[in-house]
Structure prediction request, 147 residues.
Amino acid sequence: MSGTPGLLTIDECITTGTGKQRHTDCHGVFRSDDHQVTDQFAAIGESYQKGTVLPVQRDARGRCHLVGVAPTAGRLAGICACVVALVGGLASLCGAFATVMPRLGGRIGAALWSPKAGRMLSRLLQACGVGFAVFGVTGVIGWLAMP
Prediction:
C-alpha cells in the first residue's frame, strides 16, 4: 500500500445515508511518522471512539487505511479462503461434467487431476487451510488488541 505512514487521532464520526447506503466515516488529525505531514481533516471509513489513535497509511486524497498485523492477517486469510473456494469450485465443475457428460468429463478430469497435479493441488489446499487458520487467528487476536 502506498502513501504516508502515520497516526490518525479520531475527533468525530459521522453516519450518513439510510438503509443499505448507510455508512460511517470518522475524521481526525493525521500526523506522519516523520512529522512532516499533518492533515486536520483526514478520514477513515470505519467507526471508532473519539480520541482513538490508529496506525494508518494516508493516500493522496486524504483517506486513511489501517495498517498493522490485524488488517494484513485478515487480508491474507481472505486470500487463502478464496483459493480454497476456487479449487473447490473447479472440482465441483469437473464433477458436474463427469456426471452429465461421462466421456467429456472423464477427459477433463484426466487432464486436470493427473497424479502430479493432484498432489500439487492437495499441497496447495493444505497450505491455504493452514494459512487461513493461522492468519485468521492472528487477525482476530490483532483486532481484539486494537483500540
About this structure: Residues 4-66 form a domain with the OB fold (Dihydrolipoamide Acetyltransferase, E2P) fold (CATH 2.40.50). The first strand starts at residue 4 and ends at 16.
